[in-house]
Amino acid sequence: MQVSQNSVVQFHYTLSDENGQLESSTNQDPVLYLHGHQNLIPGLENALADKKAGDSFSITLAPADAYGERNEDAIQSVQVKHLMGAKKWKPGMVAVVNTSEGQRQVTVVKVGMFKAEVDTNHPLAGKTLTFAIEILDVREASAEEIEHGHAHGVGGHHHH
């Protein structure tokens, strides 16, 4: 079965930038996602279309097809208590903050007693990224998955 609209795809990935490997799923659960619902960055979702279980491939994405270009005006001041993910913050650390659009990753630029300056660009914005993909499984999505807009199961979306 080929990857197409509303198929659920399970894959392992290794992500690298021009400086080397950043992260890999190979020692964890594979990623599970519902195709055609903007659950992945556009360039990666496009590359997965029409592939099938057992396929392995590598794709290099320009920032525009990955996490976008960096916005240099993206520095914001937030209260330190709103940063989630660590007890003590240092510049360069990635924190999670709640925004009106849901949770976002931000990079700490400067930390004071009560306020921190954070860079709201995605940590991978402005980078050319290479994904090495190994597709493990492709299946039809259930009606419930299509209705919810995401895959259910290990590596997919969990309802709390």
UniProtKB/TrEMBL annotation:
Pfam families with a match to the protein in the record: FKBP_C
Keyword Secreted found: no
Matches recorded under InterPro entries: PPIase_dom_sf, PPIase_FKBP_dom
Keywords: Chaperone, Cytoplasm, Isomerase, Rotamase
Presence of keyword Cytoplasm: yes
EC class of the enzyme, as a word: isomerase
Location within or outside the cell: Cytoplasm
GO molecular function: peptidyl-prolyl cis-trans isomerase activity
Family assignment from sequence similarity: Belongs to the FKBP-type PPIase family.
Name the record gives this protein: Peptidyl-prolyl cis-trans isomerase
